[in-house]
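Open question from group meeting: does this chain pack into something compact, or does most of it stay loose? Before anyone orders reagents, we agreed to write out a predicted structure and look at it together. Recording both the input and the output here so the notebook holds the full record.
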Amino acid sequence: MFRQYRALTLATLLVFLMAAVFGCTTGEKEAGQGTVKEKFNGEIIGIEPGAGIMKATEKAIKEYSLDYTLKDSSSAAMVAALKSAIESKKWIVVTGWTPHWMFARWDLKYLEDPKGVYGGEEHIATIARKGLQKDAPAAYQMLDAFYWQPSDMEAVMLDINVNKMDPDEAAQKWIRENEDKVKKWIPEGVPKGNLKKIKLGYVEWDSEIASTHVVKHVLMKLGYDVELKAVDAGVMWTGIGAGHFDAIVAAWLPHTHGDYYKQVKDKVDNLGPNLEGAKIGLVVPDYVTINSIEDLNK
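Structure tokens returned:
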């Protein structure tokens, strides 16, 4: 009887030990232990399909032979996923760009891109339709003079996304607080808009929402009736090339929108950079322990 009891006890103990070992292993896996791919759930969280950064990421997946799925979403959904992951200390990799307010809010880093798929430093340019200079000279000169710093753009983005201001309210606030900069954009001795309509196209990146709304309110100061139209990148470039938009201040060059620009460059006026020092790439929270796109394969 005692021997039977002893054997049963040992068997029961063995079962508990095995459960503890395998249970621990499962728990560790759920907590993010395992391969780099498993920690990222095999996903790269993207934005709107057709965006230049999405095309670059599709190329990066091929160039680096990544066994990852690029998930379409939106700029807002990407940031929401990033916020949720950071709050839970989970690993996440997203398509990111600067200037962007998320870099001011969280500790983030770009993964190194040794193959140069995402290109180097970029600028954001102002593009106008042919004929705008003649049709609306004050607007054309203002757009040509428009230039600001990444910190300026980030201030507007923070008010919109963190302080929950309406984009128009945030743009007007920045203009009030930066009158000296804005004065440099306003032409002198040129006939004002006289309520002539100006149509601006833009992509719904937080950065372009900020810049386009600021330009809108400066043009309104010049007497123009300004209409904004949010579209995807392809439609924005087709629209400016066909003259459906008077201008865009959201042209990421030479890489992100380079293919689009090549298709319309002979049909538009490139007024040059309105912001320099822009960048795109794959972004992770700073606590993620890899540093290169190549490490995603580990």
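Observations to bring back to the group:
The longest strand covers residues 268-285.
Residues 2-30 form the longest helix (29 residues).
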